[in-house]
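Batch manifest, entry 17 of 40.
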Amino acid sequence: FFWLWREAQAALDLVRDELSAAIELEVWADERGDRAMASSLLDEYADESWRKQIATRFFPPADGTPRHISVQIDDFAIAEGRALLHVIVSDSRLAAPYQETRVYRETTSGWIRSAPGADFWGAWESQESAHFSFRYRKRNRAAVTAAAPQLDLLYEQIYRAVGLSVDAEGEKMQVELRISGPIPQGSTRTASGRLLAVASPELLPRPLGFSSARVLVESVIQQVINLLIWERMDSIPSDWQSIRSGLRLWLLWKVDGVLAQSRPEIVRWLYSESVAER
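Output type: structure tokens
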């Protein structure tokens, strides 16, 4: 038994080393803003929209300041020539490290970054809450279950904050958690109601210690705020459009999410921008 365990551990250590080597090449391209090299390090058989989304993250610093990046593998799983990695990224452009989930595919020349798929995320499932109808893959079940009651409370809080009543028997907002394809910034009207699309929370870069449920709550509630403002204030005069931006920020402060915690920095940034435009 010990011999089998030792052999298995050695095989896993080898895979970790190979994955680390692939990540080092990505870091080299990222630090230099080499988009051509970055694109060549992505799975050519992956969805084109995913390839473009990842490649656009590779750009040189605007001021030419040297950039230093460190990516550490926190944990990983292997399934039929593909690997799911949980990594911790430190970037000199950012004040704190963040966590991210990535997928890699094994090739004859080594591991290469690939698009997420059903092999790790599972089949489609659904569940409903008081105000939402969720469609997601099996991997996100726990996050949706934990986030649903929080989203119901925030939904009611937002509507009441602007003087609107909440109809308990009204149309539920559909929320679809996607692992591929475009993620629109607004809602889509379908035969069964309004649809909001958000990325699977594991695929979003997020601060250390942030659970998938918390990331999902943040993603959905920002979309709900955008939708509320669009539906209720779309016809206001053009010289009043700044009110929409102000209301959006005020609602973000009300729900006390991640952006609300950075309120002083955001206010200073917006004030500096407004002064510069005068």
